C-alpha cells in the first residue's frame, strides 16, 4: 500500500531527476516509470497510480509544496478563502495525472489490475486547513466546530472534485479506485458520521451515478469502532483496514461476504524473518472466509529491505 517506492533505488534515481515531488507527480513519463518499477521486481497483482492525495487541493488552486525531509506544506485555508477554490479548471490541471494513468494501464499485462485513488474529503480538509499533517488534526476540528458553514462549503467542493476525479480515473483506465481517509481517527461518533461517512457516501453515490459498476475501496484509517457503520452506510465495495484493528473485530462487524484489504504492519516487513511470515499467515487465515486483498495496514516505509518485499510476495502468492 503506497505507490512505488521510496525503498527502491531506481525510484530515488528518477526522484533526483524530477526536481520537486509535484513535478514527479505531474510529469507523465516519470509517473509511469515509477508506477511500473515495483512490478518489474515483484510478482504483484496490481499497479497503483503514482501521485499524491494533495494534487486535489493543488488543482483547486491552493498552494501546495513539499519540504524535503518534512513533508507537505499548504497555505492554510481560512473561512474567507474557502470561496476562492477553483473547481472550474480542476480536471484540466490534473490532465497530466490522468495521462500517466492511461500510460500505466497501457503497459500492464492483461491480468494485472490498475488502481487509482483519491484522498477523502475529511483527510484533505485536515491538510488544507492545518497547512500540514498533524497528530490530532486540531486545526481542522476546531475550524469545523467554529465555522460550520465554511466547513460544509469546503466539504461540498471536495466531494464534487473527488467524484469528478475518480470518474475521470476510471474512464482513463483504472479498474478500481480507492478513497484514502488517512486521518479518520480522533473524531467522535457524530463528527465521524458527518465528516467521514456522509462525504464518502456522497462520493460513492456520485461515482456510481456515472459508472454504476465502479469498484471502490474505502480506507478509513483509525476508524476502529466505526468501521461497521462506515462499510454499511457508504456503499464501498471493499474495506481497507489498518494494522491496529483486530481481525476478529473486523470479521464481527462486517457482513458475510464483505471484502477486506490489509493489514500487515509495515514495520513487520522492515524486520522480516519468521515473525513477518507468522503474522502474514494469521491475516490470511483470519480473512479466509471472505474476499481478501493482502496488503500492508499502511504505507511501505523507506527503510524497507527490498529482499523482505520479495520474500513476502513469494509467501503470499504461495498460499
What does this structure look like?
- It is a single chain.
- The protein is of the alpha/beta class.
- It has a single domain, classed as TIM Barrel (Alpha-Beta Barrel).
- It is 51% helix and 13% strand.
- It has a 7-stranded parallel beta sheet.
Write out key terms for the chains shown.
alpha/beta, TIM Barrel, seven-stranded parallel beta sheet, about 325 residues, two-stranded antiparallel ribbon, 9 strands
Segments where pLDDT lies below 50 for 5+ residues?
Answer: none
Count of separate structural domains: 1
Q: How far apart, in Å, are the first and last alpha carbons?
A: 20 Å
What would you report as the Rg, rounded to the nearest angstrom?
19 Å
The second-level CATH architecture is Alpha-Beta Barrel
The number of helices is 15
State the order of secondary-structure elements, H for helix, E for strand: HHHEHEEHHEHHHEHEHEHEHHEH
Shape, principal axes of CA atoms: globular
Q: What would the average pLDDT be, to the nearest integer?
A: 95
Question: What characterizes the major β-sheet?
Answer: 7 strands, parallel
Q: Main sheet: which strands, in order across?
A: 1-4-5-6-7-8-9
* CATH topology type: TIM Barrel
Q: Count all strands and give the number.
A: 9
Level-1 CATH class name: Alpha Beta
Strand % is 5-15%
Task: Output the structural class.
Answer: alpha/beta
Oligomer: single chain
- Classify the helix fraction into a percent range: 40-55%
